Write a sequence for this structure.
Protein backbone atom coordinates (compact mmCIF):
# COMPACT_ATOMS: atom_id res chain seq x y z
CA UNK A 1 0.00 0.00 0.00
CA UNK A 2 2.78 2.41 0.96
CA UNK A 3 4.58 1.60 -2.27
CA UNK A 4 1.40 2.35 -4.28
CA UNK A 5 0.94 5.71 -2.51
CA UNK A 6 4.55 6.66 -3.10
CA UNK A 7 4.21 5.66 -6.77
CA UNK A 8 1.07 7.80 -7.22
CA UNK A 9 2.69 10.84 -5.54
CA UNK A 10 5.79 10.44 -7.69
CA UNK A 11 3.59 10.22 -10.80
CA UNK A 12 1.70 13.38 -9.78
CA UNK A 13 4.97 15.23 -9.19
CA UNK A 14 6.28 14.14 -12.59
CA UNK A 15 2.98 15.18 -14.18
CA UNK A 16 3.19 18.65 -12.60
CA UNK A 17 6.83 19.03 -13.65
CA UNK A 18 5.93 17.91 -17.16
CA UNK A 19 3.14 20.48 -17.42
CA UNK A 20 5.46 23.23 -16.18
CA UNK A 21 8.13 22.23 -18.68
CA UNK A 22 5.56 22.14 -21.46
CA UNK A 23 4.48 25.67 -20.60
CA UNK A 24 8.08 26.85 -20.49
CA UNK A 25 8.80 25.22 -23.83
CA UNK A 26 5.98 27.06 -25.60
CA UNK A 27 7.94 29.52 -27.68
CA UNK A 28 7.12 33.22 -28.02
CA UNK A 29 5.87 32.54 -31.56
CA UNK A 30 3.17 30.15 -30.28
CA UNK A 31 2.17 32.47 -27.43
CA UNK A 32 2.04 35.40 -29.85
CA UNK A 33 -0.08 33.34 -32.25
CA UNK A 34 -2.61 32.58 -29.51
CA UNK A 35 -2.76 36.22 -28.42
CA UNK A 36 -2.86 37.60 -31.95
CA UNK A 37 -5.81 35.41 -32.92
CA UNK A 38 -7.73 36.76 -29.91
CA UNK A 39 -6.66 40.35 -30.63
CA UNK A 40 -7.70 40.21 -34.28
CA UNK A 41 -11.08 38.69 -33.48
CA UNK A 42 -11.70 41.30 -30.77
CA UNK A 43 -10.59 44.21 -32.96
CA UNK A 44 -12.85 43.17 -35.86
CA UNK A 45 -15.88 42.69 -33.61
CA UNK A 46 -15.35 46.04 -31.90
CA UNK A 47 -14.77 47.80 -35.23
CA UNK A 48 -18.04 46.42 -36.60
CA UNK A 49 -19.87 47.51 -33.43
CA UNK A 50 -18.38 51.03 -33.63
CA UNK A 51 -19.17 51.30 -37.35
CA UNK A 52 -22.81 50.39 -36.75
CA UNK A 53 -23.16 52.78 -33.80
CA UNK A 54 -21.66 55.82 -35.54
CA UNK A 55 -23.20 54.90 -38.92
CA UNK A 56 -19.80 54.74 -40.61
CA UNK A 57 -19.64 54.57 -44.39
CA UNK A 58 -16.86 51.99 -44.47
CA UNK A 59 -14.39 49.88 -42.53
CA UNK A 60 -10.83 49.60 -43.81
CA UNK A 61 -8.84 46.63 -42.53
CA UNK A 62 -5.38 45.16 -43.18
CA UNK A 63 -5.69 41.43 -43.83
CA UNK A 64 -3.49 38.80 -45.46
CA UNK A 65 -5.81 35.76 -45.45
CA UNK A 66 -9.59 35.34 -45.78
CA UNK A 67 -9.70 33.18 -42.62
CA UNK A 68 -10.19 36.06 -40.20
CA UNK A 69 -12.16 38.36 -42.47
CA UNK A 70 -14.95 35.93 -43.44
CA UNK A 71 -16.69 35.87 -40.01
CA UNK A 72 -16.35 39.65 -39.90
CA UNK A 73 -18.03 40.05 -43.28
CA UNK A 74 -20.98 38.02 -42.01
CA UNK A 75 -21.75 40.60 -39.30
CA UNK A 76 -25.50 40.87 -38.84
CA UNK A 77 -27.05 44.15 -39.96
CA UNK A 78 -23.87 45.28 -41.72
CA UNK A 79 -24.60 48.56 -43.54
CA UNK A 80 -21.06 49.73 -44.19
CA UNK A 81 -18.61 48.99 -46.98
CA UNK A 82 -15.70 46.69 -46.22
CA UNK A 83 -12.32 47.60 -47.71
CA UNK A 84 -9.61 44.95 -47.34
CA UNK A 85 -6.03 46.17 -47.78
CA UNK A 86 -3.64 43.31 -48.50
CA UNK A 87 -0.36 42.39 -50.16
CA UNK A 88 -1.92 39.18 -51.47
CA UNK A 89 -4.78 38.42 -53.84
CA UNK A 90 -7.40 37.39 -51.30
CA UNK A 91 -10.04 35.29 -53.04
CA UNK A 92 -13.50 35.38 -51.52
CA UNK A 93 -15.28 34.01 -54.58
CA UNK A 94 -15.87 30.66 -52.88
CA UNK A 95 -17.68 32.33 -49.98
CA UNK A 96 -21.19 32.96 -51.24
CA UNK A 97 -22.94 36.24 -50.59
CA UNK A 98 -19.91 38.09 -49.22
CA UNK A 99 -18.87 41.40 -50.72
CA UNK A 100 -15.82 43.49 -50.06
CA UNK A 101 -13.46 45.82 -51.90
CA UNK A 102 -9.87 44.58 -52.15
CA UNK A 103 -6.90 46.94 -52.52
CA UNK A 104 -3.53 45.36 -53.31
CA UNK A 105 -0.59 46.92 -51.50
CA UNK A 106 2.92 47.15 -52.93
CA UNK A 107 5.15 44.37 -51.64
CA UNK A 108 7.27 46.66 -49.48
CA UNK A 109 7.42 47.31 -45.75
CA UNK A 110 5.35 50.30 -44.64
CA UNK A 111 4.40 51.90 -41.36
CA UNK A 112 0.84 51.55 -40.07
CA UNK A 113 0.09 55.04 -41.38
CA UNK A 114 1.66 54.05 -44.69
CA UNK A 115 -0.77 51.15 -45.14
CA UNK A 116 -3.64 53.40 -44.15
CA UNK A 117 -2.64 56.19 -46.53
CA UNK A 118 -2.23 53.80 -49.45
CA UNK A 119 -5.69 52.39 -48.71
CA UNK A 120 -7.16 55.89 -48.54
CA UNK A 121 -5.62 56.97 -51.85
CA UNK A 122 -6.57 53.79 -53.70
CA UNK A 123 -10.08 53.82 -52.19
CA UNK A 124 -10.69 57.39 -53.34
CA UNK A 125 -9.26 56.78 -56.81
CA UNK A 126 -11.55 53.75 -57.20
CA UNK A 127 -14.58 55.74 -56.08
CA UNK A 128 -15.08 53.53 -53.01
CA UNK A 129 -14.44 56.47 -50.66
CA UNK A 130 -15.52 60.11 -50.99
CA UNK A 131 -14.73 63.32 -49.15
CA UNK A 132 -16.68 63.44 -45.89
CA UNK A 133 -17.07 59.65 -45.52
CA UNK A 134 -16.66 58.35 -41.98
CA UNK A 135 -14.18 55.48 -41.91
CA UNK A 136 -13.32 52.98 -39.17
CA UNK A 137 -9.77 51.69 -39.72
CA UNK A 138 -8.46 48.45 -38.20
CA UNK A 139 -4.68 48.19 -38.27
CA UNK A 140 -1.77 46.44 -36.69
CA UNK A 141 1.37 44.49 -37.47
CA UNK A 142 0.55 43.36 -41.00
CA UNK A 143 3.73 41.28 -41.34
CA UNK A 144 3.02 39.50 -38.02
CA UNK A 145 -0.59 38.87 -38.94
CA UNK A 146 -2.59 40.48 -36.15
CA UNK A 147 -4.68 43.60 -35.58
CA UNK A 148 -4.33 45.78 -32.47
CA UNK A 149 -5.52 49.31 -33.37
CA UNK A 150 -8.86 50.96 -34.23
CA UNK A 151 -9.00 54.50 -35.63
CA UNK A 152 -12.03 56.56 -36.69
CA UNK A 153 -11.43 59.18 -39.40
CA UNK A 154 -13.34 61.47 -41.72
CA UNK A 155 -12.04 61.33 -45.29
CA UNK A 156 -10.40 64.59 -46.36
CA UNK A 157 -10.48 66.19 -42.89
CA UNK A 158 -7.57 64.36 -41.33
CA UNK A 159 -4.52 66.45 -42.26
CA UNK A 160 -2.02 63.94 -40.88
CA UNK A 161 -3.39 61.14 -43.09
CA UNK A 162 -4.86 62.74 -46.21
CA UNK A 163 -6.05 66.30 -46.68
CA UNK A 164 -7.56 67.89 -49.78
CA UNK A 165 -9.89 70.79 -50.55
CA UNK A 166 -11.64 69.44 -53.67
CA UNK A 167 -14.21 66.67 -53.81
CA UNK A 168 -11.42 64.37 -55.02
CA UNK A 169 -7.64 64.72 -54.92
CA UNK A 170 -7.39 63.27 -58.43
CA UNK A 171 -8.06 64.74 -61.88
CA UNK A 172 -11.26 63.34 -63.37
CA UNK A 173 -9.65 61.74 -66.43
CA UNK A 174 -7.19 59.58 -64.52
CA UNK A 175 -8.23 55.94 -64.29
CA UNK A 176 -7.97 54.37 -60.85
CA UNK A 177 -5.88 51.44 -62.09
CA UNK A 178 -3.36 53.86 -63.63
CA UNK A 179 -2.96 55.83 -60.40
CA UNK A 180 -2.64 52.67 -58.31
CA UNK A 181 -0.09 51.22 -60.72
CA UNK A 182 1.99 54.40 -60.58
CA UNK A 183 1.71 54.71 -56.79
CA UNK A 184 2.83 51.08 -56.39
CA UNK A 185 5.80 51.69 -58.70
CA UNK A 186 6.80 54.85 -56.82
CA UNK A 187 6.57 53.05 -53.45
CA UNK A 188 8.77 50.24 -54.76
CA UNK A 189 11.33 52.72 -56.09
CA UNK A 190 11.34 54.68 -52.83
CA UNK A 191 11.82 51.56 -50.76
CA UNK A 192 14.25 49.59 -52.93
CA UNK A 193 16.25 52.42 -54.51
CA UNK A 194 18.37 51.46 -57.48
CA UNK A 195 21.30 49.06 -57.16
CA UNK A 196 21.34 49.64 -53.42
CA UNK A 197 21.41 53.42 -53.69
CA UNK A 198 18.54 55.81 -52.79
CA UNK A 199 16.91 57.64 -55.68
CA UNK A 200 15.01 60.89 -56.03
CA UNK A 201 12.42 61.32 -58.75
CA UNK A 202 9.24 63.12 -59.80
CA UNK A 203 6.26 61.69 -61.71
CA UNK A 204 3.58 64.01 -63.10
CA UNK A 205 0.33 62.25 -64.03
CA UNK A 206 -2.48 63.78 -66.11
CA UNK A 207 -3.11 66.95 -68.20
CA UNK A 208 -0.03 66.07 -70.26
CA UNK A 209 -0.48 68.79 -72.91
CA UNK A 210 -0.27 71.59 -70.36
CA UNK A 211 2.44 69.81 -68.38
CA UNK A 212 4.57 69.60 -71.54
CA UNK A 213 3.88 73.28 -72.23
CA UNK A 214 5.18 74.20 -68.78
CA UNK A 215 8.34 72.09 -69.14
CA UNK A 216 11.23 71.32 -71.46
CA UNK A 217 13.68 68.48 -72.07
CA UNK A 218 16.97 68.43 -70.20
CA UNK A 219 18.17 65.39 -72.19
CA UNK A 220 16.95 63.45 -75.21
CA UNK A 221 13.56 61.92 -74.45
CA UNK A 222 14.06 58.13 -74.25
CA UNK A 223 10.34 57.47 -74.82
CA UNK A 224 10.05 59.46 -78.04
CA UNK A 225 9.59 57.50 -81.26
CA UNK A 226 8.12 54.36 -79.65
CA UNK A 227 4.56 53.17 -80.25
CA UNK A 228 2.16 53.94 -77.40
CA UNK A 229 1.16 50.33 -76.82
CA UNK A 230 4.74 49.64 -75.72
CA UNK A 231 4.86 52.49 -73.20
CA UNK A 232 2.08 51.74 -70.71
CA UNK A 233 3.29 51.80 -67.09
CA UNK A 234 1.51 48.53 -66.30
CA UNK A 235 3.99 46.65 -68.51
CA UNK A 236 6.87 45.10 -66.51
CA UNK A 237 9.46 46.20 -69.08
CA UNK A 238 8.25 49.81 -68.92
CA UNK A 239 8.32 49.79 -65.12
CA UNK A 240 11.89 48.49 -65.23
CA UNK A 241 12.80 51.20 -67.78
CA UNK A 242 11.33 53.90 -65.55
CA UNK A 243 13.46 52.61 -62.69
CA UNK A 244 16.56 52.67 -64.91
CA UNK A 245 15.90 56.26 -66.00
CA UNK A 246 15.28 57.42 -62.42
CA UNK A 247 18.88 58.64 -62.27
CA UNK A 248 18.20 61.19 -65.03
CA UNK A 249 17.64 64.76 -63.83
CA UNK A 250 14.13 66.03 -64.38
CA UNK A 251 10.60 64.64 -64.15
CA UNK A 252 8.67 61.84 -65.80
CA UNK A 253 5.45 62.82 -67.58
CA UNK A 254 2.71 60.18 -67.62
CA UNK A 255 -0.50 60.57 -69.64
CA UNK A 256 -3.78 60.06 -67.80
CA UNK A 257 -4.26 56.67 -69.53
CA UNK A 258 -0.90 55.42 -68.23
CA UNK A 259 1.35 55.99 -71.26
CA UNK A 260 4.86 57.22 -70.38
CA UNK A 261 5.50 60.27 -72.58
CA UNK A 262 8.77 61.76 -71.34
CA UNK A 263 11.68 61.48 -68.94
CA UNK A 264 14.26 64.11 -67.98
CA UNK A 265 11.73 66.92 -68.13
CA UNK A 266 12.53 70.25 -66.45
CA UNK A 267 9.38 71.76 -64.90
CA UNK A 268 9.29 75.50 -65.66
CA UNK A 269 6.31 76.55 -63.56
CA UNK A 270 7.14 78.78 -60.60
CA UNK A 271 5.82 77.95 -57.16
CA UNK A 272 3.84 80.84 -55.62
CA UNK A 273 2.01 78.93 -52.91
CA UNK A 274 2.86 78.34 -49.27
CA UNK A 275 6.53 77.66 -48.47
CA UNK A 276 7.52 74.00 -48.57
CA UNK A 277 7.91 72.27 -45.19
CA UNK A 278 11.45 72.12 -43.85
CA UNK A 279 13.51 69.45 -45.58
CA UNK A 280 11.73 69.68 -48.94
CA UNK A 281 13.70 71.30 -51.75
CA UNK A 282 13.58 72.24 -55.44
CA UNK A 283 12.16 68.90 -56.59
CA UNK A 284 9.15 69.29 -54.30
CA UNK A 285 8.67 72.99 -55.11
CA UNK A 286 8.56 72.26 -58.85
CA UNK A 287 6.04 69.44 -58.27
CA UNK A 288 3.82 71.77 -56.25
CA UNK A 289 4.14 74.45 -58.94
CA UNK A 290 3.22 72.19 -61.89
CA UNK A 291 0.12 70.86 -60.09
CA UNK A 292 -0.85 74.46 -59.29
CA UNK A 293 -1.04 75.50 -62.95
CA UNK A 294 -2.21 72.20 -64.51
CA UNK A 295 -4.90 69.61 -63.77
CA UNK A 296 -2.35 66.98 -62.74
CA UNK A 297 -1.12 65.08 -59.70
CA UNK A 298 2.59 64.72 -58.88
CA UNK A 299 4.35 62.01 -56.88
CA UNK A 300 7.82 62.84 -55.57
CA UNK A 301 10.44 60.52 -54.06
CA UNK A 302 12.90 62.23 -51.74
CA UNK A 303 16.43 61.00 -52.37
CA UNK A 304 17.57 61.87 -48.86
CA UNK A 305 14.75 60.22 -46.89
CA UNK A 306 12.87 57.90 -49.28
CA UNK A 307 9.69 59.76 -48.34
CA UNK A 308 6.94 59.88 -51.00
CA UNK A 309 5.03 63.18 -51.21
CA UNK A 310 1.91 63.61 -53.34
CA UNK A 311 0.86 67.02 -54.68
CA UNK A 312 -2.42 68.25 -56.12
CA UNK A 313 -3.54 71.83 -56.79
CA UNK A 314 -0.20 73.21 -55.63
CA UNK A 315 -0.47 71.61 -52.16
CA UNK A 316 0.62 68.45 -50.41
CA UNK A 317 -2.26 66.00 -50.00
CA UNK A 318 -0.27 63.33 -48.18
CA UNK A 319 3.21 62.05 -47.36
CA UNK A 320 4.15 58.39 -46.97
CA UNK A 321 7.24 57.82 -44.88
CA UNK A 322 9.85 55.20 -45.66
CA UNK A 323 10.36 53.15 -42.49
CA UNK A 324 13.23 50.95 -41.45
CA UNK A 325 12.19 47.37 -42.21
CA UNK A 326 12.28 44.72 -39.46
CA UNK A 327 15.30 43.14 -41.18
CA UNK A 328 17.23 46.40 -41.26
CA UNK A 329 19.11 47.84 -38.30
CA UNK A 330 19.19 51.62 -37.92
CA UNK A 331 22.54 53.20 -38.62
CA UNK A 332 24.70 53.96 -35.58
CA UNK A 333 24.68 57.66 -34.69
CA UNK A 334 28.15 58.99 -33.96
Amino acid sequence: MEADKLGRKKGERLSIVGRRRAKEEIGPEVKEGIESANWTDLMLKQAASIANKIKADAILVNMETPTDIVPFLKTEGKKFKVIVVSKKEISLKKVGGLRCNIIILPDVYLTRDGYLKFGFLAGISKGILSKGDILVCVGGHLEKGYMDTITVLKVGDESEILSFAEESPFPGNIKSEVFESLLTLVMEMAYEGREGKPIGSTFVLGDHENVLQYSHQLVFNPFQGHTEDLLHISKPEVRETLKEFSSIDGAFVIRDDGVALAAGRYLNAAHHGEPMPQGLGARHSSAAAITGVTDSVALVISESSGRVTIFRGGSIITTIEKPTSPAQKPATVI
